[in-house]
Write a structure and sequence with these properties.
The N and C termini lie far apart (50 Å). This protein has 14 helices and 15 strands. The chain is of the alpha+beta class and 479 residues long. The strands form three sheets. Strands 1, 2, 3, 4, 5, 6, 7, 8, 9, 10 and 11 form an eleven-stranded mixed beta sheet that branches. The radius of gyration is 22 Å and the shape is globular. Strand 6 and strand 7 form a beta hairpin. The chain binds adenosine-5'-triphosphate and magnesium ion (3 copies). One magnesium ion binds next to loops.
């Protein structure tokens, strides 16, 4: 059944309202009072203290459509945008939450009811995963709902980063977390990719649409998992992804919410000098994605700068501008997309109508445009001179330092050309600069976004075991 993104959003909130949930507005993309987070990365963020038992509210069940940005920290999808069909920097996450109220026994059947009865998705196209030894969740899916064993996959932690699936969800290195159960939609054999947990799962055939997290622990700074006072539920479903399924389109960028924005992006770069831009080309996706992240971040009070989230905003902005340049734009164009975005989403998110959003982006664009052409020339020259397919890290540093090319932007250009970056040399230069300047935070974030690998690795527990309805964390020291 065809539904617009807006209709899906409303249907979701109403469905969970009918199950006793209070509809709570989205919190800002800048988390309030949470220094552990750069940007809001999930619906549960605003309820963190309800999970921790620190805060009591009038309700124990809530449902939201939450503005999220995943462009830094533990959940960082910046490098995915334009390359996968399903990742955005900014997206809306639909969620239902229980604070010590209902648990798996209700959360799983309600998710199923919403997908198959309200959205009318065909049951045989849905796959589910459960945490490796969560027999309780397995049995609910298998015995109560009736999903055959062939479409239920048990998945543990992510096998040393070998596979992307990871059925233990954490908002960051600390905070509420727990084992989870995810729902995937099979787009059919015409799309590449294997089922969840298989070696070729990183395709688009089996699309992860919904994550049901059984929030039972608080991970502290030392990595220890402390049991929460009561078990909770936290779910998250990407609105753009479920819309792509419902609307039967190949990527998130083809849904109703993005169609006009993609067209506006094409028109904007062409007005700025690009010619014959192919509709749906990856750079247009990057631009259409990034205008949302930049506009929502500015609307919630972030300004481009050199540290923390201000620097993340600057990087997203400059990356979009560079993609416009790549298509042939030779004048500021990015800021003109604020208006079409507000036309698309301003009724649901009136903060998009703030007049300063376009002004801030325009100023950033004018500033960056002055050096973009020079920087690109130096970069392309350096790339042409590489003999071993690796770009000298000192060039990366110089571009960063002198031309305002954040390292991940250089990495983005290099990736397009199949060139690797000498990250060690870049690291050393940054380290030297850090010794000079006091900007420790700036360094951390710049480095974290280029190398978001091992530092994010989760080593707090060895495995989780279920014992009845309890989940036990077994640490490496055997406790
Ligand atoms: P993926 O494996 O595809 O990166 P995830 O496992 O990181 O997704 P979760 O943290 O489980 O995602 O978030 C819950 C849901 O939010 C996902 O099932 C998906 O529908 C949606 N989602 C997550 N990341 C993005 C993103 N970058 N853009 C759009 N939707 C997203
Ligand atoms: Mg992800
Ligand atoms: Mg996933
Ligand atoms: Mg997930």
């Amino acid at each position: 059944k065809y539904m617009t993104a807006s209709e899906i959003r409303n249907a979701y909130l109403q469905f969970f309202q009918s199950k006793g949930h209070t509809i709570v507005p989205s919190s800002p993309v800048v988390p309030e009072d949470d220094p552990t987070l750069l940007f809001t990365n999930a619906g549960m963020n605003q309820f963190k203290n309800c999970y921790l038992g620190i805060e009591k509210r009038e309700y124990t069940r809530a449902t939201t459509s939450q503005k999220c940005i995943r462009a830094g920290g533990k959940h960082n999808d910046l490098d995915n945008v334009g390359y996968t069909a399903r990742h955005h920097t900014f997206f809306e996450m639909l969620g239902n939450f229980s604070f010590g109220d209902y648990f798996k026994q209700d959360a799983i059947p309600w998710a199923w009811e919403f997908l198959t009865k309200v959205l009318e998705l065909p049951e045989d196209r849905l796959w589910v995963t459960v945490y490796v030894d969560d027999d309780e969740a397995y049995d609910i899916w298998n015995k109560e709902i009736g999903i055959p064993a062939e479409r239920i996959v048990r998945i543990g932690d992510n096998k040393g980063g070998k596979y992307m699936s990871d059925n233990f969800w954490m908002m960051g290195d600390t905070g509420p977390c727990g084992p989870c159960s995810e729902i995937f939609f099979d787009r059919g054999p015409s799309v590449q990719g294997g089922p969840p947990g298989s070696k070729d799962e990183d395709g688009d055939r089996y699309l992860e649409i919904w994550n049901l997290v059984f929030t039972q622990f608080n991970r502290d700074a030392s990595g220890k998992m402390n049991r929460l006072p009561h078990p909770n539920i936290d779910t998250g479903m990407g609105l753009e992804r479920i819309a792509s399924v419902i609307q039967n389109v190949p990527t998130n960028y083809d849904i109703d919410l993005f169609r006009n924005l993609m067209a506006a992006a094409k028109a904007a770069v062409e007005k700025a000098g690009a010619t014959d831009v192919e509709p749906g080309t990856p750079s247009l996706k990057v631009i259409a994605d990034h205008i949302r992240a930049c506009s929502f971040a500015i609307a919630d009070g972030v300004l481009p700068g050199n540290e923390g989230r201000a620097y993340v905003l600057r990087r997203i902005c400059r990356r979009a501008i560079r993609h416009g340049y790549k298509l042939g734009a030779r004048a500021p164009f990015f800021y003109t997309l604020v208006e079409p975005l507000a036309r698309e989403m301003g009724d649901v998110y009136p903060e998009l109508n703030k007049p300063n959003i376009a002004q801030v982006i325009k100023a950033e664009e004018e500033r960056f445009f002055l050096t973009l052409a020079n920087g690109m020339e130096i970069l392309e020259d350096a790339i042409a001179k590489t003999t071993n397919g690796v770009l000298d890290g000192n060039v990366v540093f110089k571009l960063h330092d002198t031309f305002g090319f954040p390292a991940d932007l250089t990495a983005d250009v290099c990736r397009e050309k199949g060139i690797k970056v000498d990250t060690d040399a870049f690291d050393r230069s940054m380290e030297e600069q850090r010794a000079k300047a006091r900007a420790a935070g700036k360094f951390k974030i710049a480095a974290g976004l280029v190398y978001n690998g091992p530092t994010n690795e989760f080593r707090g527990y060895q495995e989780l075991r279920t014992e009845g309805c309890r989940v036990l964390a077994i640490y490496k020291d055997g406790t």
